[in-house]
Please model this.
Amino acid sequence: MTAAVLAIRWVAVGRLEALPPRRGRAVRVGDRRIALFRTGDDRLFAVEDRCPHRGGPLSEGIVHGHCVTCPLHDWVIDLAEGRAVPPDEGRVRTYPVRVVDGRIEIGLGTAP
Model:
């Protein structure tokens, strides 16, 4: 029996210079709405653009450190893990991100 290998399909979603530090923006990839963030230390994160609390748009939240605060009810989401910071509970899906020749790309899993 052979192990299945999952490949990552990389999708370009914009230029790095178009996303200022400490900001987020929503991008649509197929039927997915993804929140893309650039932190103050110039790291990039991508998570599902829906707060686990009430579905608020995380892309419109306040970026601080490697977290974002939801604009609706102040839930804080860790961008690296997609988990709500305690005492809140819940999580959002995270996506790998990379920069190639100045283009931001988000990784989507594909079937083997």
Observations:
- The domain at 18-99 is CATH 2.102.10.10 (Rieske Iron-sulfur Protein).
- The chain is about 0% helix and 45% strand.
- The beta strands are 8-15, 23-29, 32-38, 44-48, 62-64, 67-69, 76-78, 94-95, 97-100, 103-109.
- The chain has a mean pLDDT of 92.
